[in-house]
Amino acid sequence: MNTLKACWKLARALLHIVAGLLTILLVFPRLSQEKKEIRIQAWSIEMLGCLGIKLVVTGQPVRTGPMMLVANHISWLDITSLHAARYCRFVSKADVRHWPVIGALAAGVGTLFIERESRRDAMRVVQHMAESLVAGDVLAVFPEGTTSDGLSLLPFHANLFQAAISADAPVQPVAMQFIDQASGQRSLAPCYINDDTLMGSIWRTLTAPPLCAVVIFGDPQSAQGRDRRTWAADVRDTITAMRASS
User: Fold this and answer.
1) Number of other CB atoms surrounding residue 37 within 10 Å
2) For the chain, which end, N or C, has fewer CB atoms within 10 Å of the first or last residue's CB respectively?
3) Widest pairwise Cα distance in the chain
4) Is the pLDDT of residue 48 over 90?
5) 221 in helix, strand or coil?
6) Predicted model pTM
7) Full residue range of the structural domain in which residue 207 is found
8) What value, to the nearest 5°, has the Cα angle with vertex 100 and ends 146 and 19?
9) Residue in 48, 45, 56, 71 with CA at minimum distance from that of residue 215
């Protein structure tokens, strides 16, 4: 029975993905940016519903930019969960672009892709981020650089914080967690780490007991004279504390 339920959720999700791709290709060219953002958030909420995942939002998402959302990174579900809570433009590692289907969706919603091995590309993306922030965008980054096990945070890479410093833009810490709805305990089902395959992680999520995607928005903060390394470490401590108190 659990396998049948998982297959049903997968079928619904695949149909929803096809609808999303068609929307990007056929509808988005005729929409204003505001209407695109509304569509993306609505699609993301519906995708979580297809997967049987309940969205729980704590705190107040920023209403307008400029703002850089800084979140911990656990799963392939993080982008959908954060988009469901508040539309934003993601900065992501370049190999996400090549993920089946997910990469096409990420590109379609305006993700900025960064080559972690290329210092020149990293500088280009930071400059582009700063320009977007000056223009009033809400950006989102995962400064761990990769997914963690969801139990603790990896060190934060500080280079992306330079964009907020250069643009004199604030940062809003965001804590991500996946919770078992019945027990209230953290679930490792959506994790995507080490030897996990994408399909293996997806199937584990589909066959897990009902989950909550918990998105916790902290208080926005400015650099206040901190350099990027100090600011990154402080925001990491803030997110760790937010997760521990939730």
Assistant:
1) 19
2) N
3) 57
4) yes
5) strand
6) 0.91
7) 2-245
8) 115
9) 56
